[in-house]
Design brief:
This protein is an alpha+beta fold. Strands 3-4-5 form a 3-stranded antiparallel β-sheet, with no helix packed on it. A two-stranded antiparallel sheet has the order 1-2. A hairpin with a 6-residue loop joins β1 and β2. The protein contains 4 helices and 5 strands.
């Protein structure tokens, strides 16, 4: 669905049909330790960019909204995990390094660009 920021995100949900006014981020709502989600949080959220860059089905994302100083400067922090290799992923846009190494033809491409 298209977020209030104008980007596509599979975790965002809205319903304005027949007078309803529902908006939610299901990724942030799944984390009980996070601050409550606000539509303005979509502007600083890296999740749509991660999803556009990486379609790995084994990538699990966890989002957390952090308040800034005196409530200003809220930002969305992301942690990523690989469910196949059970490791933390430092760069979610590129994905799990072990999954990437298992892809066919990757070693040949690396040899071409050395």
């Amino acid at each position: 669905m298209i977020t209030p920021d104008g980007r596509e995100c599979r975790f965002y949900y809205e319903n304005f049909h027949r007078g309803a006014s529902d908006q939610e981020c299901r990724l942030i709502d799944a984390n009980p330790n996070s601050e409550a989600w606000k539509p303005a949080d979509c502007a600083s959220c890296p999740v749509p960019d991660i999803l556009r860059a990486n379609s790995d089905p084994n990538l699990i994302l966890e989002a957390n909204v952090k308040k800034g100083f005196l409530g200003f400067g809220r930002k969305v922090e992301i942690k990523a995990f690989c469910s196949k290799h059970l490791i933390s992923v430092a760069k979610p846009k590129t994905g799990c390094p072990q999954c990437n190494a298992e892809k066919p033809g990757l070693k040949e491409l690396e040899d071409l660009f050395k």
